[in-house]
Amino acid sequence: MASYAELLTRTEWKARREQILELDGYKCVRCNNREDLHVHHIRYERGRMPWEHKDHDLVTLCEQCHTVWHNRKNGGYLDVEEFFRTLDIDHRARLRHE
Ligand SMILES: [Zn+2]
Ligand SMILES: [Zn+2]
């Protein structure tokens, strides 16, 4: 069984990550930074590979915001609506892409 870190090195994840970066315009949705971008999983669905998550479960954050996010969450995850409310983003606009 591959570790999670190993899964994130696979071409499937790289392709999926690229799709999310494109969807978010290659910038952090929280602060509009265009450098050191990460694609964060807002929530994980059991039994799904990292790249099998839907658009609304993935979001582009810069390294700094990603760290802030994980620190304030203490490693846990908010639900999707709460996440987007926190970021002041219209989550429904995102869902329309699917
Ligand atoms: Zn993350
Ligand atoms: Zn940021």
Shape designation: globular
Provide the list of bound ligands, each named once: zinc ion
Kindly, what is the distance between the CA atoms of the first and last residues, rounded to a whole number of angstroms? 30 Å
Largest sheet: 2 strands, antiparallel
The radius of gyration over CA amounts to 13 Å
Total strands: 2
Runs in which pLDDT lies below 50 for 5 or more consecutive residues are none
Quaternary state, please? single chain
What does this 3D model show about the protein?
The chain is mostly helical. It has one domain (26-95). Helices cover 42% and strands 10% of the residues. The chain contains 5 helices and 2 strands. It has a two-stranded antiparallel ribbon with strand order 1-2.
Note the topology.
Elements: H1 4-7, H2 11-23, E1 37-41, E2 58-62, H3 63-73, H4 80-87, H5 91-95
Antiparallel strand pairs: 1-2
Bound molecules: zinc ion (ZN) (2 copies).
Compact overview of the structure:
The chain has helices at residues 4-7, 11-23, 63-73, 80-87, 91-95, and strands at 37-41, 58-62. 42% of the residues lie in helices and 10% in strands.
